[in-house]
Amino acid sequence: MIKGFFRWCLNIFGWKTIYNLPTEKRYVVIAAPHTSNWDFPLGIFYIFSAGVPFRYMGKDALFKWPQKYLFKALGGIGVDRNNKNKLTTRMAEFINSQDKIALALSPEGTRSKLSYWRTGFYYIALEAKVPIAMAVMDYGKREIGVKTSFMPSGDLEADLDIIRDFYKDVKGKHPEKQGPIEIKPK
Q1: Are the C-beta atoms of residues 95 and 103 closer than 8 Å to each other?
Q2: CA 87 – CA 125 distance, rounded (Å)
Q3: What is the span of the domain harbouring residue 107?
Q4: Residue 26 within any structural domain of the chain
Q5: Rounded Cα–Cα distance for residues 171 and 72 (Å)
Q6: Distances (CA, A) of 149 to 24, 58, 79, 132, 174
Q7: What are the φ and ψ backbone dihedral angles of 27, each rounded to 5 degrees?
Q8: In a domain, 95, yes or no
Q9: Is 23 within the bounds of a domain?
C-alpha cells in the first residue's frame, strides 16, 4: 500500500517511474544528474515506491541537529567528505553485511557544476563485488528510476564510457549545472 501511494504521488506530479532494478540482492545505485534541491524529495518518493531497502550517502552537514533524525529515518548515512579514511572499504563491508540493500549516492556530490565526478561509488561496488545500478531524474522526459545496471570490470575508463553513454541525453532540473562525467585529474 505504501509503495502504491508513493507511485501514485510521483504519477500525479507527472513522473514516469522505472523499476529495472538488478536481480542481485545488493547493489550500488548512482543517481544523476544532481542539480536541484528537488532531487532529494523526488528520490525519497522513488525509494519508497520501489519497496527496496535503500540507504543513501549524504554529506555529514545534513546529519546535524535538528534534521539529522529525519535524514537518518529516511535511510541516510552521513559522510565526512574531508575524512575519506577507508570509506570505500567500510561501505563495501556494510553492503556485504546486509541481506538486501541498495546503497544510493550522487557521484557529483553536490548540486553545483563540477568538472569531474567522485569515483567512490565505483570503488565501493568493485570492492563489494556488486553491480552499479544507474538511476535517472530526467526532468526533460519526466522519468525517474533505475533503468539499467552493470558489473564494474575494474577498468574505470571503460566503465565510465558505459556510464557516459547512458547519461548523455539525461537532463537535470538545471542542465547548466551538469558537469562532464570525468574523473578528477591527478
Answers
A1: yes
A2: 12
A3: 2-177
A4: yes
A5: 29
A6: 10, 22, 24, 5, 25
A7: -165, 165
A8: yes
A9: yes
Please name the residue that has the C-alpha cell 541498495: 102
Specify if 184 maps to a domain.
no
How long a stretch of residues is the chain?
Answer: 186
Q: How many helices (H) and strands (E) does the chain have?
A: 6, 7
pTM of whole model > 0.85? yes
CA–chain centroid gap for 113, Å, is 17
- Burial tier of 70 (Cβ tally within 10 Å: 0-12, 13-18, 19+): exposed
Show pLDDT as tens, one digit a residue, over the chain (186 residues): 889 999 999 999 999 999 999 999 999 999 999 899 899 999 999 999 999 899 988 878 888 888 888 888 888 888 876 776 788 999 999 999 999 999 999 898 676 777 778 899 999 999 999 999 999 999 999 999 999 999 999 999 999 999 999 999 999 999 898 888 988 877
